[in-house]
Amino acid sequence: MIFYKFVVFYKASFNKVVNKGILKQIILDNRVEVERYKVFRREVDMSSFPCYVLVGLRRAGKSFMLYQRMQQLLSQGHTWDEMLYVNFEDDRLEEFKASDFNLILECFAELSDKRPMLFLDEIQNIDGWEKFARRLADNKYNVYITGSNAKMLSREVMTTLGGRYLSVEVYPFSFKEYLDFSGQKYDANSRLQTGIKAKFMRLYHEYLHWGGLPESVGLPVKRDYVSSTFQKVYLGDICARNGISNPNRLRLMIKKIAESVKQPLSYNRISRILSSVGGKISVPTVGNYVQYCQDAWLLLRMHNIASPFVEKETISKYYFTDNGILNLFLVDADTSLLENLVAVTLLRKYGNDPDNERVFYYNSGVEVDFFVPDDGLAIQVCYNLSHSDGTYEREVSALKKLPSALDCKRRLIITYDEEATIEDNHGKIEVLPYWKWVIA
Questions:
Q1: Looking at beta carbons, which pairs linking 237-243 to residues 24 or more positions away fall under 8 Å?
Q2: pLDDT in tens, 57-106
């Protein structure tokens, strides 16, 4: 009995203590890890404000953006005596709790007498991280934080942080970044050369179908990597984090949303479909599941600008942050993938705020895929406009009618590889390939 009590006490004590020696080892190991990576530089400026929170889908490149910033500082003459990097997905930190945060500063102080700039990776794994982050900002530290959970930008968290951090949304590679990373030229003259144009179009096809997760670029078979990313998000960031007892039902929901990516969906409709195939599921549960997917940056929500408030909250279009993950669920997917790509491009440019009030779709008498009020930009997406199935008339007709309802300064039809100009009483409608729209 005495031995048993000792074991229990020892185990409890062990669980409460993070070994400072291990923390120092992690800090020193990470210095080597950061320097050995050849980082692709992305166009994000993190030098104008002292504290940043980087958020986005798992494996979208947030950690590498921290590496980029640290390597940039090293090239400017800073040293590791001024920088502290910790990744909270390190398995050596499984026992780490919010009460242990100060140990990081203590360990660094024993390695250096300088005030560190802190780089804290995947910090959302530690409950209560917000108070430590605020204390660092209050004490005038330079801090860079990453996380894969959209709750890091919730009103409650941002209230706790008190405006002390700027948020940066990190998406998988844009098409320009994908081309640059692949070493592909895309200026107008290069695209006229047969060999270069052929490679350009091959990369375009790859990007449309398998997205832009940075570590997938260059892999000869991308499906396995993309699938493993989805499993990590699905099982780890969604199911485990939110205590979902029926993961199969959640997966069915994600599959249904993928198959309906171009169409508005209501919680009621999702509930009815899932209840018919996998046992009864309530509307509130569906709402929670959708929110969990948004929190993990798997799904992006878009509202109908013409809907009343209640419908805006319950009937939405949903898109996937990465085309490759969407493609896992689809067959003959080109049209859906192109529209998804346009949606993500718009949200990347205009921002994905918590209320999703920057990019909309329009559905009231006519249907238009996207509308951006700030720029008066209306967009239809059509993989092949020359089909003889009424596609041309349907897509063009909606854009011809929209200026009677909304202030349109520019009207576009985004295609896979068609280009034209259409004139009407309101001016012109541009028909552009997606690739030309984003790299022009």
A1: 237/58, 237/148, 237/149, 237/295, 237/296, 237/298, 238/292, 238/293, 238/295, 238/296, 238/298, 241/149, 241/292, 241/296, 242/288, 242/292
A2: 999 999 999 999 999 999 999 999 999 999 999 999 999 999 999 999 99
Helical residues (DSSP H) of 260-379, grouped into ranges = 267-278, 283-295, 309-314, 323-327, 334-350
3 state SS of 311? helix
Q: What global pTM score does this model have?
A: 0.90
Cα separation, 326 vs 255, in Å, equals 9
CATH number listed for the domain at residues 207-439: 1.10.10.10
Span 149-193, pLDDT tens digits: 888 877 778 888 888 999 899 999 999 999 999 999 888 777 777
The set of long-range contacts for 244-253, using a CB threshold of 8 Å and a minimum separation of 24, is 244/289, 244/292, 246/278, 248/278, 249/274, 249/278, 249/279, 249/281, 250/289, 250/292, 252/277, 252/278, 253/286, 253/289, 253/290
Q: Is the dihedral angle over the CA atoms 173, 177, 181, 186 positive or is it negative?
A: positive
Cα dihedral 224, 227, 232, 233 sign: positive
Comma-separated ranges of CATH 3.40.50.300 domains in the chain: 2-170
CATH 1.10.10.10 in the chain, residue ranges = 207-439
Q: Residue 274 in contact with residue 255, Cβ under 8 Å?
A: no
The C-alpha atoms of residue 274 and residue 427 are separated, in whole angstroms, by 46
pLDDT digits (tens, 9 = 90+) for 110-149: 999 999 999 999 999 999 999 999 999 999 999 999 988 8
Q: Residue ranges of the alpha helices (H) in 37-78? A: 62-75
Residue with the bigger pLDDT between 9 and 200: it is 200
Q: Which of 285, 209, 213 is nearest to 56 (CA)?
A: 213
CB-CB contact of 286 with 273 (8 Å) = no
Looking at every residue in the chain, the average pLDDT score rounds to 90
Q: Which fold has domain 2-170?
A: Rossmann fold (3.40.50)
Cβ atoms < 10 Å from Cβ of 306: 18
Structure confidence at residue 52 (pLDDT): 95
How many angstroms separate the CA atoms of 158 and 166, rounded?
10
CB 56 within 8 A of CB 62: yes
